[in-house]
Design brief:
By secondary structure, the chain is α+β, with helices and mostly antiparallel strands. Helices cover about 30% and strands about 30% of the residues. It has a 5-stranded mixed beta sheet. The chain has a 3-stranded antiparallel beta sheet with strand order 7-6-16. The chain is globular, with a radius of gyration of 21 Å.
Length: about 325
């Protein structure tokens, strides 16, 4: 820990530069990555170690703006405060890149902005508003791009609302042909989120296969000597809901979403899979990437290629919503 913090101080000394103060409308992002992987617990005691305005370099990513350093029981926490619309640009780059169709970039810009506004409103007085990881939406620091800047500027201030309030705009990479109902993943229904069919065959995660050793699964779930794994139940869209695991100590029922989290999101891309035991491994054959709720990013790209504009794409995935301008706070 001392070595990491010492490295942080050196980097800050080399990169920090004092510049203009922030625009009024900013957002606070907790940086979550390989060096700083943890999120403060609700009851964790933390203390502020300092803050500086400038640039911070962490594992090749450069974060600009105000950098706060906090120390808690879980280690060091870095919080990056930056202008809100700049944050939106960086999320679009991190989530879908810059080479996608312009209407798909505009779609992602509205979603990133909406999600940021939503999180900021519910966490307004908290230490941070949002994290930089898949816990919320990807943010990897400065990566300026003209096409993304154009998409963000041409949707400036636009967010999705329902009954006049910002929605919680869940989205994911690849649905595998049909999106998921939110109650089957998050235990709650939303009037603007229902399962719909969409085409994402252009996604690299349209179909996939994973062979995972039983020992790896057992270690991830803290279950020793797994013998069998079978599907116990499905969601309304035929994704796996629960699995039955037979082991030396008995039988354990595990939620498919918990299995994904334990093994790793990319290791098991979605819960839309079949399971087959093969000697000391389980073969997962599946479709899609992500939780499956809300907008499917690769479907949005396909729709943009077919000539749909960003408003039509958003309306398709979030029926009943309205695009409005958010108010700066």
């Amino acid at each position: 820990m001392k070595r990491i913090f010492g490295l942080f101080l050196i980097i800050m000394t080399l990169l920090v530069s004092f510049g203009n103060t922030f625009a009024i409308d900013t957002i606070k992002v907790l940086i979550v990555n390989e060096v700083y992987p943890k999120v403060p617990a609700k009851d964790e005691k933390i203390e502020k170690m300092g803050s500086m305005k400038g640039d911070l370099l962490v594992i090749g990513s450069r974060y600009s703006g105000n950098i706060e350093v906090w120390k808690g029981d879980g280690g060091l926490y870095l919080i990056n405060e930056l202008p809100f619309e700049e944050y939106v640009k960086e999320v679009v780059v991190a989530e879908v890149g810059s080479s996608w169709e312009m209407e798909a970039l505009k779609t992602q810009a509205v979603l990133a902005r909406t999600y940021g506004v939503y999180q900021k409103r519910i966490n307004g007085n908290a230490l941070f508003h949002i994290t930089s990881s898949v816990l919320h939406q990807a943010y990897k620091g400065n990566s300026s791009d003209m096409r993304v800047a154009y998409a963000v500027e041409n949707t400036a201030g636009e967010i999705l609302t329902f009954n006049g309030r910002p929605i919680e705009p869940f989205y994911h990479s690849t649905c595998g042909g049909r999106t998921e109902n939110p109650e089957d993943v998050f235990g709650r229904s939303y009037p603007y989120l229902r399962s719909i069919e969409s085409n994402c065959e252009i996604s690299p995660y349209w179909v996939w296969e994973r062979r995972i050793p039983l020992t790896e699964i057992g270690k991830a779930l803290n279950i020793a000597r797994i013998k069998e794994m079978t599907v116990k139940s499905y969601t309304s869209t035929k994704r796996v809901k629960e699995l039955t695991i037979v082991h030396d100590s008995g039988t354990t029922v595990v939620k498919a979403t918990d299995l994904r989290k334990a093994i790793g999101w990319s290791r098991l891309p979605s819960t839309n899979f079949t399971v087959t035991k093969d000697e000391d491994s389980v073969i997962f054959e599946g479709k899609g990437y992500g939780h499956g709720v809300g907008l499917c990013q690769w479907s949005a790209l396909q729709m943009a290629r077919e000539g749909k504009n960003y408003k039509e794409i958003l309306s398709f995935f979030y029926p009943g919503t309205t695009i409005q301008l958010y108010e700066s706070r």
